[in-house]
TrEMBL record:
Main location: membrane
Pfam families: DUF883 (PF05957), DUF883_C (PF19029)
Coiled coil: none
Topology within the bilayer: Single-pass membrane protein
Organism from which the protein derives: Rouxiella silvae
Transmembrane spans: 82-100
Gene Ontology cellular-component terms listed: plasma membrane
Protein name, as recorded: Stress response protein ElaB
UniProt similarity note: Belongs to the ElaB/YgaM/YqjD family.
Domain DUF883 stretches: 11-61, 74-100
Origin organism lineage: Bacteria, Pseudomonadati, Pseudomonadota, Gammaproteobacteria, Enterobacterales
């Protein structure tokens, strides 16, 4: 079930990284350095970029920690009750087989 959301999250992470890299390039290469309005906008954009990067970093760490917790719980459940794991696997295989048969 975690795999279902992984491509979407990876895509979102990649999009946000690309956006932040593009914004960094724009901030480095544009505007008249003497213009006060440019300096103010650049300062706000840099602050927003730093905020987004820090939130993205902490969110990624949080997702990894949650995934590891779920994997550990599933592993301990299967080790504690191996026949339940076999039964669930057989049931899932049966359902997939019936769906593919049609």
């Amino acid at each position: 079930m975690a795999n279902q959301f992984e491509p979407q999250q990876t895509s979102l992470d990649d999009d946000l990284r690309m956006l932040s890299e593009t914004l960094e390039e724009v901030l480095k290469s544009s505007g008249d350095k003497a213009d006060e309005k440019y300096i103010e906008i650049k300062s706000r954009a840099e602050q927003a970029l730093n905020d987004v990067q820090s939130r993205l970093s902490s969110a990624t760490d949080s997702y990894c920690a949650k995934a590891k917790t779920v994997v550990r719980q599933a592993d301990s459940y299967v080790h504690d009750k191996p026949w339940h794991g076999v039964g669930v696997g057989a049931a899932v295989g049966l359902v997939i087989g019936l769906l593919l048969r049609r």
